[in-house]
Amino acid sequence: MPYFIGLMSGTSLDGIDAALVDCSATHPPRLIATRGEPMPPALRDRLWSLCHADGASFADLAAAEQGFCEAQARSVAGLLADAGLAPADIAAVGSHGQTIEHAPWGHATGPAYTLQLDNPSLLAELTGCPVVADFRRRDLAAGGQAAPLAPAFHQALFRAPGQWRLVLNLGGFANLTLLPPGEDDRAPLGFDSGPANALLDAWHARHRGGAYDADGAWAASGRVDEALLERLLAEPFFHRPPPRSTGREVFHLDWLSTHLDGRERPEDVQATLAELTAASVALAVEMARDTYDAPPAECLIPCGGGSHNPDLLARLARRMPDTRLESAEAFGWSPDWLEAAAFAWLAWCRLEGQPGNLPSVTGAAGPRVLGGLFAP
């Protein structure tokens, strides 16, 4: 059985998701088992400091990479034990790594770059499994944004005849995929729409403590500050045509602070940040539809942590009244495991010699086989 494991740690730094996936050329990917490995607090703090540091020593990077790789290996070992499998049963582990910085347009006069902390050689050594890693820089080398990479996987799962569909990942940042009907020969479109949970979580942590606003309850208690929302939406990124991708390098609390006058109630800012996510997604949907002269999509499939936020989903529904929100579970997939599963599937693509990127999404010069292979 061609089993692959995908590993994903997002911008929230809350843990490592591991997904066991059956990949084959004869059927769509099938999710077999999953496991979440909480991020050790000390490691999370170390990774967080690297994401927000003006400078870091090589020793700091090496220590964080070692700890992260060991946490990944524990996740793989736990998943194998849960599934009753041995390392020899795994064709490859697809490791995304931990993004430290993503600058697809570079900084000042410097080159474009994306940095995912990872050590696939050590991961192969610790797990006894072949590892495929360093997916993003191959697309970047071909002139692409290196992100998002999930739309090719969304196509494999959700594209269907006779329907326009949208897939929306609501992680720390939101990325959107527009899937044309199966009989349409155009490739999917996909790009980052802007912040999703990153600002919501950070603002909540500053004023209320805790990792996140459960069910969006605090945001729901506030009122949208329309003037503040207008100032936030003036950010050039929201109006940049695709291909485009973003991260904490653009959207962070210091960015938010430049738009505040200091008199806002914290709960109103939270409500406005939730509305910013919904509004920026709606803008991205309109941009994608205009590009393909597409009708309103039949459905939007939310996934990621934000798919469990009823306040955020209600805001999205109000912004897109002609499109039905439908859980990934209706298609046989948990919304929590799509990203990890995507990197299992991308590892399968690497072993099959199949391209893993979509130039229509990233802007790369053409299809490319992504990732390097590291033997155990």
What does this molecule look like?
It is a single chain. Helix content is 39%, strand content 22%. It has 13 helices and 12 strands. Strands 1, 2, 3, 4, 5, 6 and 12 form a 7-stranded mixed sheet that branches. Helix 6 packs antiparallel against helix 10 and helix 8 packs across helix 10.
Q: How would you spell out the order of helices and strands? A: EEEHHEEHEHHEEEHHHHHEHEHHE
State the total count of DSSP E strands: 12
Shape: globular
Kindly provide the radius of gyration, computed on alpha-carbon positions and rounded to a whole number of angstroms. Answer: 20 Å
User: Which class best fits the helix and strand makeup?
Assistant: alpha/beta
Helix content: 25-40%
Question: Between the first and last Cα atoms, what is the distance in angstroms?
Answer: 19 Å
Mean pLDDT: 94
Low-confidence stretches: none
Give the topology.
Blueprint: E1 3-9, E2 15-24, E3 27-38, H1 41-51, H2 58-83, E4 90-103, E5 113-117, H3 120-127, E6 131-133, H4 136-141, H5 150-158, E7 165-170, E8 173-179, E9 189-195, H6 197-208, H7 217-221, H8 226-233, H9 253-257, H10 266-292, E10 299-303, H11 310-319, E11 324-325, H12 338-352, H13 359-362, E12 372-374
Helix pairs in contact: 1-2, 2-3, 6-10, 8-10, 10-11
